[in-house]
Design brief:
A: mainly beta, six-stranded mixed beta sheet, five-stranded antiparallel beta sheet, 0% helix, globular
């Protein structure tokens, strides 16, 4: 099955700086890579996703890059704000077959004011 | 839409008791997923349904766990008998449409004493 590794496990950044989270996956057939943000006491919320037919996608301060050859993808948050503090999860799946997601272990991001 | 609805939000029970967790997916979604989240194991997929039919239950830890989806708007996850190691947050998620994004409910925090 798919194995997704996520780094770092914790990340502390100064407000206004950028944050980068990296994930690697094992199954070369995976072609859908979502990122979720989980705030304390809440369920994960989809913030951005990318499919294998593109290498980069951006939505305001959030961007995701994908390198299919190396089997890794990254989340970039620019101009971080205190409300960006949360746990972020990457995931991978074969969206062409089903919607079963394999999640990374999560990154706890703390934005220091 | 109200999003994915889960009940109860918190459940405290004693070892050996039966526990039933409930989920109402987003209207029109044809995939429903049950996840378990713990500090040690992260987010684990337990089982998922497509059009009310169980597709993959390979993540169900043991026979004490069972899940049903009697109709498109309701699913249950039952643990009988419950054990302290079942303590976790259980999430339900649903998905539909061509993009396949999964939308999570707020979760049920289960504590088995």
């Amino acid at each position: 099955g798919e194995n997704v590794e996520q780094h770092p496990s914790t990340l502390s950044v100064q407000e206004g700086d950028s944050a980068v989270i990296k994930c690697t996956y094992s199954d070369s057939a995976s072609n859908y890579f979502p990122w979720y943000k989980q705030e304390l006491g809440k369920g994960p919320q989809l913030i951005i996703d990318i499919r294998s037919n593109v290498g980069e996608k951006k939505d305001q301060r959030i961007a995701v890059t994908l390198n299919k050859t190396a089997k890794h993808f990254s989340l970039h948050i620019t101009e971080t704000q205190p409300e960006d503090s949360a746990v972020y999860f990457c995931a991978a799946s074969r969206a062409s077959n089903d919607y079963k997601l394999s999640f990374g272990a999560g990154t706890t991001v703390t934005v220091r004011a | 839409d109200a999003g994915v609805i889960q009940s109860p939000r918190h459940e405290v029970t004693e070892m050996g008791q039966e526990v039933t967790l409930r989920c109402k997916p987003i209207s029109g979604h044809d995939y429903l997923f049950w996840y378990r989240q713990t500090m040690m194991r992260g987010l684990e997929l337990l089982i998922y349904f497509n059009n009310n039919v169980p597709i993959d239950d390979s993540g169900m830890p043991e026979d004490r766990f069972s899940a049903k989806m009697p109709n498109a708007s309701f699913s249950t996850l039952k643990i009988q008998p419950s054990e302290p190691r079942d303590s976790a947050v259980y999430f339900c998620a649903s998905s539909g449409g061509p993009r396949g994004e999964q939308f999570f409910g707020p979760g049920t925090r289960l504590t088995v004493l």
